[in-house]
């Protein structure tokens, strides 16, 4: 191999955990929710959602021409049934699906081939049992839907395995790359052509944090960031980890090598600071 500066042959956008319907995730500028009476209630984003929407729009405006898009599960929030619907701006699932598709349409407009969009199945809780919301959004956009994908990129020379779940059996306090590296190794141990074949890159989501490990110029594993801030469930349970917000671009180069580039932001703080009064003055809320 002769070293040279390669140029990008293919850009693949990788999105995970949009959670449309959550009050701490982006949403369209307004959404009409049809009530049972036939009346319409119009819902607008809150301040935090407006900050997330700005980031989402920045992403859309800055995307290069894309060979493909991967939307790796939990694209809608579902009805949050264990919290009796708290944390959702609507529990109308059809409305969540339409809102998610509306946000993704300008993303899909960057595709060189409109059919190269791949949706995977999210967590059961957000998929909502027998109605995979990810599939409903994929259908609306004419995209491919499957629980898990193997996507042959670079004309088949670069194979990527995609699944929403990163199984959490190794525990929260493990070094973050341990679980994704385990999945990468297991795929390597199941590489018969009738199993997974040779896999260059592994993509996972679900954790709402970002981890990327590159093992060679041709192989690596990525856990994608999410689009959902700290949920009311996480607040109530005292969970400390702040979700990472943003997207990734998988860049495939003309010499067959690859890099995953993260685009992360700090749009939402997990908790506002409390005001404290001294005499006549009060330290303003930050
Ligand atoms: Fe999620
Ligand atoms: Fe999930």
What key attributes describe this structure?
22% helix; Purple Acid Phosphatase, chain A, domain 2; binds fe (ii) ion; alpha/beta; 286 residues; 5-stranded mixed beta sheet
Structure description:
The chain has 286 residues and is of the alpha/beta class. The chain has a single domain (8-283), classed as Metallo-dependent phosphatases (Purple Acid Phosphatase, chain A, domain 2). The protein has helices spanning 47-62, 93-108, 124-127, 133-141, 178-188, 232-237, and strands at 8-15, 31-34, 40-43, 68-71, 117-119, 144-145, 148-153, 158-163, 201-204, 211-216, 219-223, 245-253, 258-265, 276-278, 281-283. The strands form 4 sheets. A 6-stranded mixed β-sheet has the order 6-5-4-1-12-13, with helices on one face. A 5-stranded mixed β-sheet has the order 7-8-9-11-10, with helices on one face. A two-stranded antiparallel ribbon has the order 2-3. α2 (93-108) crosses α4 (133-141). The longest helix is centred in the first third of the chain and has 16 residues, at 47-62. The chain is globular, with a radius of gyration of 20 Å. The site of one fe (ii) ion has 6 residues, from loops.
């Amino acid at each position: 191999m002769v070293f040279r500066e390669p140029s990008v042959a293919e850009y693949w956008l990788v999105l995970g955990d949009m959670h449309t319907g959550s009050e701490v995730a982006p949403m369209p500028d307004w959404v009409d929710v049809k009530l049972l009476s036939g009346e319409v209630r119009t819902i607008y984003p809150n301040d935090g959602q407006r900050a997330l929407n700005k980031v989402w729009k920045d992403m859309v405006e800055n995307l290069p021409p894309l060979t493909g898009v991967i939307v790796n599960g939990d694209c809608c929030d579902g009805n949050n049934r264990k919290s009796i619907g708290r944390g959702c701006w609507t529990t109308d699932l059809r409305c969540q699906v339409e809102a998610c598709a509306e946000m993704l349409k300008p993303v899909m407009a960057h595709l060189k081939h409109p059919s190269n969009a791949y949706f995977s199945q999210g967590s059961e809780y957000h998929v909502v049992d027998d109605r995979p919301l990810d599939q409903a959004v994929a259908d609306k956009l004419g995209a491919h839907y499957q629980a898990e994908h193997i996507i042959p990129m670079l004309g088949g020379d670069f194979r990527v395995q995609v699944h929403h779940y990163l199984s959490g059996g190794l525990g929260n306090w493990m070094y973050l790359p341990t679980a994704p590296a385990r999945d990468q190794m297991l795929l390597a141990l199941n590489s018969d052509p009738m199993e997974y074949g040779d896999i260059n890159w592994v993509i996972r989501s679900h954790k709402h944090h970002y981890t990327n490990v590159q093992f060679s110029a041709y192989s690596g594993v990525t856990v994608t960031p999410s689009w959902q801030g700290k949920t009311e469930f996480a607040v109530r349970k005292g969970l400390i980890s702040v979700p990472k917000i943003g997207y990734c671009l998988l860049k495939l180069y003309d010499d067959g090598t690859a890099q995953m580039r993260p685009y992360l932001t700090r749009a939402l703080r997990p908790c506002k600071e409390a005001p404290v009064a001294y005499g006549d003055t009060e330290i303003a809320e930050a």
